[in-house]
Amino acid sequence: MNEGRPYTILALASECKGIPYLQEAKRQGCRVLLLVKEEFADNPQWSWEAIDERFIMPELSKQPDVTYAVSYLARAEKIDRIVALDDYDVATAAHLREHLRIPGMGETTARHFRDKLAMRVQARDEGLLVPDFTAVFNNDEVHDFLDRIPAPWVLKPRFDAGAVGIRKLHDAPSVWDALNGLGDQRSFYLLEQFIPGDVCHIDSLIWEREVVFAVASKYGTPPLAVTREGGIFNTRTLPFDSDESLALSDLNARLMIALRQVRGVAHTEFIHAQADGRFYFLETAARVGGANIDRLVKAATGLELWQEAARIDLANLHGKPYYPPTVRGHHAGLIICLARQQHPDLSPYSEPEIVWRLEKEYHAGLLVASPDHGRVAHLLAQYTDRFAQDFLTSAPPKAQVRTTI
């Protein structure tokens, strides 16, 4: 309790997610306020018993509207912490913390986790390996990059989540056409060398600048390929004692120090390059991974990332230490695709390792878990072939399942 009142948490939600965070905050006696984007305000998945009051805005990123609104709310509510439930809310939450002088990640650190250019510059300057890249502010620098670095290249929006808005380009005229077509939006992009390889992700918890939990996984088809070309999204955890997993854990720990993450949760991607076998940092986010990756982590370890993110924030709020729970060392695999059927029939998929089924129109998805990593890998490979035959639609890539990190 604080000055005879419960602590108050303001959660920003541009999508319906992070419900276990709200539930844990409520369980610990907090007053929970939800500021939600209008599109998701009435989603039945919200845990209304965990939410004391709901406030609705058309957009949570439009400034100065959101600052005006939260500042007005602060006249009546003593807000103790602000939490971002979606990647697009991270920068907004950081700005509001700075404006209202509320503890937590500020704008400089948040930029390392939202701005693809900032995170690359910071990681490179701290000695981590990243693909060659350039800002696109200056024409001479772009010309030099195109001359030095062989095609193909990827043109990336600096502030969109995951693979959203990324374009793969194969010759210099295409690059200049794309840049010129961006107009005044050009400075909000970067250009990067495309490195073929396996894309891995590592989901972690950080407490007082130390990674206290991490689990590494590998995508089947890289998210960029799924977003651009359509197809089946899948990922599975790596064996905990494998060389890949150990290398990713070490790199992730170094990255969190380089990006100045003090406490919280992170979802980070590296590419294991085909050409030289090294790991290159791709991008990171200071929140729980999307595309149901939190379910993957829970199925493998028993740890609920959203709940632990709340426990970390509240431990800091109460001035107490945080200890992650003991986890189990199982393995899990996740598969999702856009389906041609409105309600795909998953009943023929009856293996006992299935622990979750996606219930969403025009989507098919399963999650499997087992103590045996080989069994998970076998099922995921089998299901990828079966999903392609049973469900996969030929809809355009823009309609594909969202696979943001």
Write the layout of secondary structure elements.
Layout: E1 8-13, H1 19-27, E2 31-37, E3 53-57, H2 65-73, E4 81-84, H3 90-100, H4 107-114, H5 116-125, E5 133-135, H6 139-148, E6 153-157, E7 167-169, H7 172-182, E8 189-193, E9 197-207, E10 210-219, H8 223-229, E11 232-237, H9 243-258, E12 264-273, E13 279-285, H10 293-301, H11 305-318, E14 331-338, E15 354-357, E16 363-370, H12 373-390
Helix pairs in contact: 1-11, 2-3, 3-4, 4-5
Overview of the structural elements:
α1 (19-27) runs parallel beside α11 (305-318). This protein folds into three domains: 8-104, Rossmann fold (3-Layer(aba) Sandwich); 132-193, ATP-grasp fold, A domain (Dna Ligase, domain 1); 197-399, D-amino Acid Aminotransferase, Chain A, domain 1, CATH 3.30.470.20. The model is unreliable at 397-405 (pLDDT under 50). The strands form three sheets. Strands 13-12-9-10-11-14-16-15 form an eight-stranded antiparallel β-sheet, sandwiched between helices. It is an alpha+beta fold and 405 residues long. It has helices at 19-27, 65-73, 90-100, 107-114, 116-125, 139-148, 172-182, 223-229, 243-258, 293-301, 305-318, 373-390; strands at 8-13, 31-37, 53-57, 81-84, 133-135, 153-157, 167-169, 189-193, 197-207, 210-219, 232-237, 264-273, 279-285, 331-338, 354-357, 363-370. β9 and β10 form a beta hairpin.
